[in-house]
């Protein structure tokens, strides 16, 4: 009798162990040996060709190969993106570097991890029958200005660098959405555009060519597209961020080689996209503006670049006690 009871108990134990081992084996088969580290990225604005390399990198598995599970999201302005970063809602934000530098100067606990555009590709455009192609010709003309417009924010610095009297420029305050319609209707002579994104779009939609006054060529050099991370993120997961930046470098290089594939990848995520031809023009034009990494890793930042940006910001008002360049950026995440 005793032996029968023991055999029943043993049989029950073996059945339980068998079920546990089966469940464990099933879990091991359905779960990868490792899971990629999640990285949430927020752009400063809506989708555009400028962001194409991120989508190509994701589609081609460059982020996965660097053990990064990248989640890409559109934005609603640089300040909102930076705020979400500080709150811990994002791991990386892609914003114009000048906005991040201004925010850090004011005490925001973030750092620039890479600057991909050392010079923002922007310009004033005018119609060919009233062409403005050099700074002196801007006097006596009307210029659309908008809140947050980087070019017109630093118009004073542009005027000073080119011996232009800013008081002789008629500055017309316009909502950004009205800028192009007002320009096309002849109610304003000049508007600010990004040559890599806006210019191809306006030319395609209007069927016209425009006179272009390239601002960096005339002394208005503003650091552009940048990856910004929080101080907390640097402290808690530097290896994840380093792998993200390595994959992004690979994505930039691949996009230069294969803009058509970058276009296709971006269009898959862009529900209300313009034509394939236009998006590819934006992607090619953007690649021409990005750091090549010929001497240092792509995105590498120098003290001089930060100091020049601070000089520019200070022309637009008092910035308080100037922080040292090391407060604004780190290159450690770009180093292998």
- Give the CATH architecture of the largest domain: 3-Layer(aba) Sandwich
By CATH reckoning, the class of the largest domain would read Alpha Beta
- As a whole number of angstroms, the C-alpha radius of gyration is 26 Å
Strand order in the sheet with the most strands = 2-1-3-10-4
Keywords: Signal
Domain SsuA/THI5-like: 53-262
InterPro entries: NMT1/THI5 (IPR027939), SsuA/THI5 (IPR015168)
GO biological process, one term: thiamine biosynthetic process
Keywords:
single chain; 336 residues; D-Maltodextrin-Binding Protein, domain 2; five-stranded mixed β-sheet; three-stranded antiparallel β-sheet; 44% helix; 16% strand; globular; NitT/TauT family transport system substrate-binding protein; SsuA/THI5; signal
Give a brief description.
With 336 residues, this protein is an alpha/beta fold.
How is this structure best described in words?
- Helices cover 44% and strands 16% of the residues.
- The protein folds into three domains: 1-30; 37-119 and 223-334, D-Maltodextrin-Binding Protein, domain 2 (3-Layer(aba) Sandwich); 122-218, Periplasmic binding protein-like II (D-Maltodextrin-Binding Protein, domain 2, 3-Layer(aba) Sandwich).
- The chain is α/β, with parallel strands linked by helices and 336 residues long.
- It starts with a helix and ends in a 22-residue tail after the last helix.
- The chain has a five-stranded mixed sheet with strand order 2-1-3-10-4, sandwiched between helices.
- The radius of gyration is 26 Å and the shape is globular.
- The longest helix has 29 residues, at 2-30.
- Keywords: Signal.
- Residues 53-262 form the SsuA/THI5-like domain.
């Amino acid at each position: 009798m005793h032996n029968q009871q023991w055999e029943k108990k043993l049989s029950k134990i073996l059945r339980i162990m068998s079920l546990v081992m089966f469940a464990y084996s099933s879990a091991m088969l359905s779960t990868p040996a490792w899971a990629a580290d999640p990285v949430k990225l927020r752009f400063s604005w809506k989708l555009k060709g400028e962001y194409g390399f991120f989508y190509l990198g994701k589609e081609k598995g460059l982020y996965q190969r660097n053990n990064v599970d990248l989640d890409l999201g559109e934005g609603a302005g640089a300040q909102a993106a930076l705020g979400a970063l500080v709150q811990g809602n994002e791991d990386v934000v892609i914003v114009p570097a000048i906005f991040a530098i201004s925010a850090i100067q004011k005490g925001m606990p973030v750092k620039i991890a890479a600057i991909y555009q050392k010079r923002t590709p922007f310009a004033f455009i005018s119609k060919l029958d009233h062409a403005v192609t050099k700074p002196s010709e801007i006097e006596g003309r009307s210029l659309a200005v908008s809140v947050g417009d980087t070019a017109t924010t630093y118009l004073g610095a542009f005027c000073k660098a080119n011996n232009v009297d800013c008081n002789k420029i008629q500055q017309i305050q316009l909502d950004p959405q009205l800028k192009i319609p007002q320009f096309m209707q002849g109610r304003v002579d000049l508007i600010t555009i990004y040559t890599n994104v806006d210019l191809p779009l306006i030319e395609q939609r209007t069927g016209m060519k425009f006179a272009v006054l390239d601002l960096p060529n005339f002394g208005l050099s503003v650091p552009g597209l940048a990856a910004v991370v929080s101080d907390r993120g640097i402290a808690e997961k530097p290896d994840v961020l380093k792998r993200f930046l390595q994959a992004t470098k690979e994505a930039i290089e691949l996009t230069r080689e294969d803009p058509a594939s970058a276009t296709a990848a971006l269009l898959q995520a862009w529900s209300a996209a313009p034509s394939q031809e236009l998006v590819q023009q934006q992607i090619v034009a953007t690649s021409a503006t990005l750091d090549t990494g010929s001497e240092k890793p792509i995105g590498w930042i120098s003290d001089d670049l930060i100091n020049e940006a601070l000089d520019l910001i200070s022309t637009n008002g008092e910035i308080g006690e100037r922080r040292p360049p090391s407060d604004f950026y780190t290159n450690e995440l770009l180093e292998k």
